[in-house]
Amino acid sequence: MKFARFIQLSLLLLFSVSILGCEPTTAEPEHSKTSVPRIIISGLRDGQLLEQSNVTIQYGLVPAAKGNIAVLYIDNGDPQLLPELAGEYELTGLEPGVHALQIKEMSADFVDTGYFDQVNFIVQ
Hints:
This protein has one helix at about 1-20; strands at about 40, 50, 55-60, 65-75, 80, 85-90, 95-105, 110-124. By secondary structure, the protein is of the alpha+beta class.
């Protein structure tokens, strides 16, 4: 029984190490700083506790070749098209509990490009 548990833990450790080893590096080549797609959400930190049901976030998107739309999702709900690629957006009427805010980059025909940023937070 102990040997089976040892094998399970070893496989879990091996799996974890292989996933961590596959994470992309954060360093960008000097020539691609303006062409690498990225989305940044600020004004709200991951794990932040909010005492009010409203918060204003700041966001910015450096689009990919086919991406030109920023779309906001709260808790995987209905998509909300953001008016610009960068700016401020006020979230209102947030219910108490844990929430996930995600901004995704999409193409003009609403095809997900795979680039996104996500912040998880709690409303008290």
